Protein 1
Amino acid sequence: MQADFDLVIIGGGCAGLSLGMYLAQLGHTAPQTLLLERRKYYENDRTWCFWGLDQALHTDLASNQWNQFKVQANEQSALIDCAFAPYQMIAAQNFYDHAQGKISKNSRLDLRMNAALLAEPQFIEGRWRIQTQFGEVSAKGVVDTRPLSMTQLKNTKLWQSFLGYELEIQEELFDPEVAVLMDFCEKNAEYIGFNYLLPFSKTRALIEFTVFAERPFYEDELLIELTKAVEKYIPHTDFKIHRTEFGLIPMGLESQVSAKHGAIDKGYVHVGLTAGSARSATGYAFQRIQRWVQECTEAIQANGLPIAPSFDPFLLSTMDSIFLNVLREHPEFGPELFMNLFSKVEPHRLIRFLSDQGHLTDYVAVISALPSTPFIKAIFK
Ligand SMILES: Cc1cc2nc3c(=O)[nH]c(=O)nc-3n(C[C@H](O)[C@H](O)[C@H](O)COP(=O)(O)OP(=O)(O)OC[C@H]3O[C@@H](n4cnc5c(N)ncnc54)[C@H](O)[C@@H]3O)c2cc1C
């Protein structure tokens, strides 16, 4: 195997493959790139959803989309029309296949599966030295997408934990026209819990139970509530589970700042779910990763070195931080706060805001929809 590269990408998940795929399109001007992925093979391990605003990328890979979604708590329910920016879903397997196909077409990129790092990369004489089971390689720049460890994530403000089944039933019980974004469970002083339902057809859907809490929740705890959710939507019905989806997303990371400053000046950047790629207040990362890929590719073309994701604007990161403080301190307010947002803010404003495309007037609309008392207290936390 070749030993010297322009770029090594550690981790071929969403961020690593997205960058690899984009670089592959540069043809013979693409940097010589080695992509190291720990997995032996890709599985359909998740779904990536986002609102299809004009700026959204890879919408052609979406297998499903919904023009309406619902948010409900207790007796209240809001049905939101989002036909102007449908809620779209990409199945991970589609994305992995597509990205691998693009990468394999350019011989300047080399994706190695089942690839382990034998030691942490070292900066020696102006290049990064990386020990792999294929031998030592060197590179001018490194994009590291490995997630931080739980110890490094100990200052996370709020954890988003979820467990879901993609399941199939015989009877036609799902409404494939309407996604259920948040269906809140009873108020709770420890966490905010809600169900999420993506109906793929009248007989097939992804049903998830999600928790926002101070600590991560693991599968065994989530399973009890997921079982209740399944019983709620398809009571007394036999079902076949096609796939299970589990996720832990840190929201509001103090480590984002330090991670970004890793060794940027020497061409080593951290990217991905635990390094600033996820929106603090939602955990959504797919479209943010795609935007970073474009900026990073431009930087590599301009000066040969990758760049980290840019910081969120001050107003946005401050609003997210205050919102997370309120949810952390008062999870019992959660259902009401989300209901206020989805029922009081005009959909195009809220969706732009949630998709990082908000105008100043959208920010004002969001702030106006929230009750002032808990937020004023949270500012001083
Ligand atoms: C189940 C789930 C559902 C999600 N749904 C959405 C959604 O609907 N919308 C949205 O916007 N965001 C969503 N997210 C958040 C985010 O988009 C994803 O987590 C996304 O995959 C993050 O990309 P990443 O590259 O940071 O991490 P990953 O995609 O997890 O990639 C990291 C890669 O690094 C590899 N790796 C780890 N250690 C090593 C090592 N030592 N050497 C080599 N490789 C290594 C891993 O095998 C993995 O392939 C979801 C997250 C999860 C977990």
Note: The first strand starts at residue 4 and ends at 10.
Protein 2
Amino acid sequence: MPQSSTASKKPNAAGQKALVIGAGIVGVNVALALQDKGYDVTIVDRGEPGMGASFGNAGGIAVTECAPIAMPGILSNVPGWLMDPLGPLSVRWRYLPKMLPWLARFLAASSKTRVEQIATELAALLHRAWDDYDPMIAKAGLADAVFKKEGALAVYRTDASRRKDDYGIDLRRRNGINIRDVSRSEIRDLEPDLAPIFACGVMEEDWGRVLDPYKIVMGLFKLFTDRGGKFETGEVTDFVYRDGKPRAAITTSGDNITFDTVVVACGAWSKTLSKRLGSPVPLDTERGYNTTVPYHGASLSRMVICADDSFVMTPMEMGIRVGGAVELGGLVASPNYDRAKALFAKGQQVLPKLNPEGGTEWMGFRPSMPDSKPVISKSPNHQNVFFAFGHGHLGLTLAATTGRLISDLMSGAETPVNMTPYRINRF
Ligand SMILES: Cc1cc2nc3c(=O)[nH]c(=O)nc-3n(C[C@H](O)[C@H](O)[C@H](O)COP(=O)(O)OP(=O)(O)OC[C@H]3O[C@@H](n4cnc5c(N)ncnc54)[C@H](O)[C@@H]3O)c2cc1C
């Protein structure tokens, strides 16, 4: 039976050394939540905090996105992915053989029965996202500086393309997501700089955005260190075991970092360490691209999702970020920035005042499970090992919730949601 008192667990946690591997948005949120429970927390990262996928993402607090990436009928799109290297979803031919087991699971997750279940399980996390973020953001003094909660507008060029999303929209509504249809004229009123090419859209009222995803990681990281949290630099390569339990992380810096408990939060790179800890996992990466251009006259009031071409545009502090797409190409191949350029060109059709001058291109590695659900889990092998990765398109959105849930699992407190769907050994 789970225990019900969080407070009663604090004395047990006090003085316990928790090590979080990975200083992305997920690792930093986990570390803060563990501090709240009284753990003495160290974060280790092979580089500077916040420089992984958490650095340059689209900045959406996408609490409405409970529909998985693999939706019913996706199988018929596979030939197109293989033939169009600049399309919304593409596969790098060389990586294809390595990716096949992941792809097989991805396609298996697209059956209607699985999709219905996954959506409900993702919604259970997404419904918590704001409640879990807000207190931590307030403690860090970041609220107004980083978050905007004015919803997102998804736009469609034709009524027919909107109807293609009927199932996905209905699925989300059935899971308690607030989505409102908007007309052609309302789109013009909401976002006057958009080209007048959209027949209709939907407003996703509860969506939010951050003004700079990197700043939110660093603002929370500062709170972590201000509260006494320690940061070490080094790549964790393996673990030292004592009495059958992992007790220290071996790092490339030459030092071993001892711990009572450890959390693997290495984003797309979590697979190797999970395997070392006895939990092989079908994690891969969906690479994503974007271009951020300074404000040269184009303006948006909220995030805009261009549903027909599968990209988003986010108004940020430093300019407008245009991007998205999924490239299945692994962690090693160098970026193909033609993808970012192709997305930007589509952005210019939609937002004609967009000007490429001074733009910055970026590619990031989404940590993706084939069923679009994160791993938020205790190890089935070791009482003192936990996993927090695999958030795919939703890592920024679900980071605070992940932190809260991992801290409950570690301290033995009752979790507010059933954790079975997110366990590491579900495949
Ligand atoms: C183009 C794009 C757009 C996106 N848009 C959104 C969005 O709008 N909303 C949203 O919610 N999500 C979005 N995402 C997804 C989101 O960015 C990720 O899910 C999230 O950043 C993952 O965070 P993380 O902390 O798990 O991983 P990361 O930020 O990648 O951090 C992992 C960290 O682990 C470290 N590490 C790895 N291996 C080791 C090791 N062995 N030892 C020590 N350190 C190690 C790395 O150096 C890194 O700092 C987007 C992603 C992309 C690519």
Note: Confidence is low (pLDDT under 50) at residues 1-11.
